[in-house]
Amino acid sequence: IGRYFIDFVHPNDRNIFASQVTKGLVTPKNTNQLHDEGQSQSELYSTLFCRIRRYRGLMNDFKVKGKSVNHVPFQLKLSFKNISDNDGTNIFLVIRASPICSSFEVPNEVTKNDVSFIIRHIADGTIEYVEPEAVGYLGFLPQEIISKNVLQLYHPEDLMYLRQIYEVIVKEGTMQRCKSYRLKTQNGEYLKVETEWSSYINPWSRKLEFVTVKHHVVEGPTNPDVFQMVTANNEPKLTEEQKIKSQTLIDDIIRTMNEVLTKPAEIAKQQMSKHCQEFASYMENFWDDLMKTDDESPAAIHAPENKNNEEDSIMHGLLSSYQYFSDSVSSTDTSLS
């Protein structure tokens, strides 16, 4: 009591914690209006994952400084609460912390139910989104895995197969659930997943923007504690030749995502060309019809100058442009009930 909570948060997670306290509560995930005394007037909360320091107890002596500092992953739910007393109203930050445990209990555990999580990465392999459900299976917190290169998480021996998958994705746009391959966890081990693949092609640049993967967990890692940090003892050892081969395959996959002409992009190009041709043909026919109307209307051309004939101006397009505009607006607007 009396200590700052942020002192117990892992140093690498303090920025995300401070950011969620400010930004997360401005755009809350849930709002329930409450008016009971002691309750918050607006129950706004924000969730995040972070590691909290484990308590170092006094066992046989008072040498606490010599003991190693361990942090445990938690999911936090943050909210503000107004409490009134004789001194006035004070605002408190309420933190509900739930420990996060590994989703696996035994080595190489085979999943009985269909469990999955989604990861999205851009064309150079950089991860830009991961579902919270992935935390218990990979051992990485969202802020740890975002901005990592997903290709570095693939097992080196599976990169040859994955290069073929990315070639199919880039050319076809999607791929159904593939056969199993290995994905690295926080502790340096690998779990087995089967993946559904999809991609987004920018219709203007006709280049691949990002790939969305839905991983179905098939088998857990040899070490079921996915949150255990990698050490020199459990870090996978690769020979220099294996490292060069892995990096070559990774470079090939990145080159495939950025250079290979995709089938969806070619379809988008053809559709855009077709629309342009149709529009040009429409404007050409419209102009020809308008010229014919002018040639076949001598009365309108030789009309007396002192006669103000609105109908002639309508026929010559002064009002038809407005009418076309108003019709197009009415066809796209949606009435509000």
From TrEMBL:
Q: Which GO terms describe its cellular component?
A: cytoplasm; nucleus
Q: Which GO terms describe its biological process?
A: circadian regulation of gene expression; entrainment of circadian clock by photoperiod; negative regulation of transcription by RNA polymerase II
**InterPro entries recorded for this chain?**
PAS (IPR000014), PAS-like_dom_sf (IPR035965), Period_circadian_regulator (IPR050760)
Q: Tell me the protein's name.
A: Period circadian protein
- Keywords recorded for this protein, A-Z: Biological rhythms, Nucleus, Phosphoprotein, Repeat
Recorded GO terms, molecular function?
A: transcription cis-regulatory region binding; transcription corepressor binding
Q: Tell me where in this chain the PAS domain is found.
A: 123-173
| Subcellular localization, as worded in the UniProt entry | Nucleus
Gene3D superfamilies to which the protein is assigned, alphabetical: PAS domain (3.30.450.20), Single helix bin (1.20.5.770)
- The residues that cross the membrane are none
Q: Which SUPFAM superfamilies match?
A: PYP-like sensor domain (PAS domain)
